[in-house]
What we know:
Layout: H1 10-24, H2 26-29, H3 34-41, H4 45-51, E1 64-71, H5 78-81, E2 86-87, E3 90-91, E4 93-94, E5 105-106, E6 117-124, H6 134-143, E7 147-148, H7 151-160, E8 170-172, E9 176-177, E10 182-189, E11 192-199, E12 207-209, E13 211-216
Parallel strand pairs: 4-11, 8-12
Antiparallel strand pairs: 1-6, 2-3, 5-9, 6-13, 7-13, 8-10, 10-11
Amino acid sequence: xxxxxxxxxxxxxxxxxxxxxxxxxxxxxxxxxxxxxxxxxxxxxxxxxxxxxxxxxxxxxxxxxxxxxxxxxxxxxxxxxxxxxxxxxxxxxxxxxxxxxxxxxxxxxxxxxxxxxxxxxxxxxxxxxxxxxxxxxxxxxxxxxxxxxxxxxxxxxxxxxxxxxxxxxxxxxxxxxxxxxxxxxxxxxxxxxxxxxxxxxxxxxxxxxxxxxxxxxx
Length: 218
């Protein structure tokens, strides 16, 4: 039997992400109790611990995470969950230029495994896709057999792992669109995480496009 590589314990990582969700104020903001949120996320533990979700393959970093616990806008809309993100203590916000953030929905090729909570697996920030227009990045992502992140998924990743967002390493969320030429994106403004949009055909040297290998439900 091949020797298993040493990595972060998957169950402990799930506990850490759940604790981040609780500490951020998700339950109160959603009008639920902490026990409600635990009950929502806990069924995902079997999926994490049974496969390890790549935890032993490589060490998590700012640019790659083995899995991310996602809590969707069905529980808490983006306009209310984005302020729960933070960067070095400064809370995030939705750009004033994007008052219609709730119009951005998952694209047709994305099927969510659960309406309220699920896992992303093998999550990349998309550093190698910087300076590519989101439209072109989407072609690259799908060509690799991967799928782009949605608004809900990007926010969840920031809540549970805020260090993924850093200067010159920000990312588009090509998995959410609203029927026009805009693509939502996360970047840093005034030292805070900002959720806004960029044109689908415009590249930026500091903006990649985040993706995942797949989505897993309980």
